[in-house]
Amino acid sequence: MTEIGIATLLLIIANIFCSVQGLNDHPSFDRFTLKIDKIFIKREYLRLFTSGFFHVSWLHLVVTIATLCFFSSGVELSLGGAKYLLIYFMGLLGGNFFALIMHQRHGGFSSAGASGAVTAVVFATIALFPGFKIGFLGVHFDIPGWFYGFLYVLFSIYGIKSRRDNVGHEIQLAGGLAGLMMALVLQPNALLVNYLAILCLVIPSLFFIFIIIRRPRFIMIDNKFFSQQQLAKARVKLLLRHEVEETPPDYQQQIDLILEKIHQNGMDSLSRTELDKLDHYSKTI
User: Fold this and answer.
1) pLDDT tens readout for residues 201-246
2) What distance in Å separates the CA atoms of residue 235 and residue 197, rounded to the nearest whole number?
3) pLDDT in tens, 31-43
4) 250: which DSSP letter?
């Protein structure tokens, strides 16, 4: 499965074009990435789609392209370009919607990249072709695709729990499951034939997504990387408070609560004071 299909080639070109633009022009990057504030306040829902074509670094882009080249051909050649794209974008939107749910109270949260979409392709490949073999760096050692998927799920769980990097593993899991389910809708007989491989992906992924939603504190384990990031953010906020005296210390928290109220009850539930505060904040972002 090394042949690259037309749909995959178009996706790679689009990812390269947008990412190069964003990496060389930060305002352009900022205009299309997923930002909680922009979506809930200004209703820029297109960001759920466009954020999947912009990457935060060259390494991030290279990993996306390499994974697509390695995993896409089986799905695209067996289902066709249109259905393959349906799986890809289902993963992209599924992962981003999950990010909205998980970070709805974090007004400053943002993300970019095709992690959810790429994981959807990986999971779909494993669901349809569990016997798919994976080699590493030309070494004559390979493992079944279903086992790789199981290890990938465990790695994503560990990544969320440890916070040792800056990758949206939770978006990957949600996007992967969305893509897998779409693959089964398009080719339902795979569920009967490859149910063991599929269960190896679905059970741990669903279990941990349940933990993320119902017991989020369980996954927040501190470490050196996470502490440094939080300390840096705290210093920036402290400086801003000194520089902008008219901004109360809990200003961002107030905005986050307003965003949560919008999410729960809609814009009509806001008071005049909240609307004025939201309008003032929207002009500063």
Assistant:
1) 888 888 877 877 776 665 554 434 344 444 444 444 544 454 444 4
2) 47
3) 898 888 888 888 8
4) T
Parallel, antiparallel, or unpaired for β 110-111 and 133-136?
A: unpaired
Residues in a beta bridge with 134: 143
What is the residue-wise DSSP string for 213-233? HH-GGGG----HHHHHHHHHH
Phi, psi of 248 (to 5 degrees): -65, 155
Q: Report the alpha-carbon distance of residue 131 to residue 147 in Å, rounded.
A: 9
More confident residue, 256 or 72: 72
Nearest in space to 180 (alpha carbons), one of 156, 198, 194: 198
First to last CA, the chain: 45
| Alpha-carbon gap, residue 170 to 181, rounded angstroms | 17
Distance CA(189)–CA(110), nearest Å, equals: 38
| 105 membership: H or E segment, kind and range | none
Q: What type of residue sits at position 185?
A: V
Q: What is the pTM of this model?
A: 0.72
Give the contacts of 275 (CB within 8 A, at least 6 positions apart).
none
Amino acid at 171: I
